[in-house]
Design brief:
The protein has 321 residues and is mainly α. Helix content is 65%, strand content 1%. The relative contact order is 0.07.
């Protein structure tokens, strides 16, 4: 469970479960919860602006209580199988408490990387639990993904070879796909890809950069977006070379990239978009030499397609006066 990785950072005396009192009330017995309004709840802020004001009893102790309360609730909801309406209500309340905890930590103690990591990952789990794709997508793009990427980079600098954040985000991406949260899945897949590239790794714990980028290409919603992913691949190859044992893409990855780029070039040429066709054919030729034998044998046909696109682009120029 999520708590097991982090509870050692806090006193065990602070752990308590979030009560299930009526919406709009405070924590039973302990008064560390801010006033909660079901129709208006705060979300942790991952930008410069604060998400919510601290409570009157703001302290590091209350921040820890709120944070651990949120963690217990998320773990409980994922294992209890509560009805959707009740679960969403508790998740909104949990997001509210996370926002409050975040603010109180910032006011009362130095910002701790472990705390920031816990708040960011719990926030992601909450918004996935709500199952609202547009809300999750907006929250991810409103600083949450940038924060997770920064925390991942800091872990890499600290020689953390466990890649905890990457593995958590990949799991959440899979969960988003299962829930048909398409936009959220796309942004989390991109985040995983960015994390691997920042780490200079191609395969980590069964998470493959090649697989992630294949998925990104397949789910791209525009020609420019697909070209952007192919450009990332091309740049990665130029930087890392074509090593083996996880130090570059596999021959199978290169074969898939080559065929996909060539086919997209042919499709672009068919509709008269020779500019993009030339770009795709260029990528195909760049990857072909590193592909499998079955794909390399078609390199001449790829070159012919590239040449035709170039000739069509140059033809109007030759007709100008």
């Amino acid at each position: 469970m999520f708590l097991q990785s982090y509870l050692t950072h806090f006193s065990s005396k602070l752990l308590f479960a979030q009560s299930e009192e009526e919406e709009g009330t405070r924590l039973s017995k302990l008064d560390y919860d801010v006033k909660y309004e079901p129709e208006r709840f705060a979300v942790p802020s991952f930008n410069d602006a604060s998400a919510t004001a601290a409570s009157d009893i703001s302290s590091e102790f209350s921040a820890q209580c709120l944070l651990l309360s949120a963690a217990v609730t998320v773990d409980y909801l994922e294992s209890s199988g509560r009805d959707q309406s009740s679960a969403k209500s508790l998740l909104r309340r949990t997001l509210h408490r996370l926002a409050q905890s975040q603010q109180e930590f910032e006011l009362n103690c130095r910002k701790k990387a472990q705390v920031s990591k816990m708040i960011a990952l719990l926030t992601m789990r909450c918004i996935l639990g709500l199952g609202e794709d547009s809300f999750a997508f907006q929250t991810c793009n409103d600083g949450l993904c940038a924060t997770l990427l920064k925390l991942h980079i800091n872990d890499a600098v600290a020689s953390d070879e466990e890649f905890v954040i990457l593995k958590q985000v990949k799991s959440m991406s899979d969960s988003a796909l299962q829930k048909r949260m398409i936009h959220t899945d796309r942004v989390l897949t991109k985040l995983c890809s960015d994390m691997l590239q920042k780490s200079g790794a191609f395969v980590v714990g069964g998470i493959s950069l090649g697989d992630l980028q294949r998925k990104m290409i397949q789910s791209s919603v525009s020609v420019e977006e697909a070209i952007g992913v192919f450009q990332e691949i091309d740049d990665a190859v130029k930087k890392a070379g074509t090593g083996k044992d996880g130090t570059s893409y596999s021959a199978g990855d290169f074969a898939w990239f080559t065929v996909e780029a060539h086919n997209r070039g042919v499709a672009s040429s068919t509709v008269g978009d020779e500019t993009h066709a030339k770009t795709f054919h260029t990528f195909a030729l760049n990857f072909a030499d590193f592909s499998t034998n079955e794909v390399r044998c078609y390199k001449q046909q790829m070159m012919n397609a590239f040449t035709k696109s170039v000739q069509k682009l140059d033809f109007p120029k030759s007709m100008s006066f």
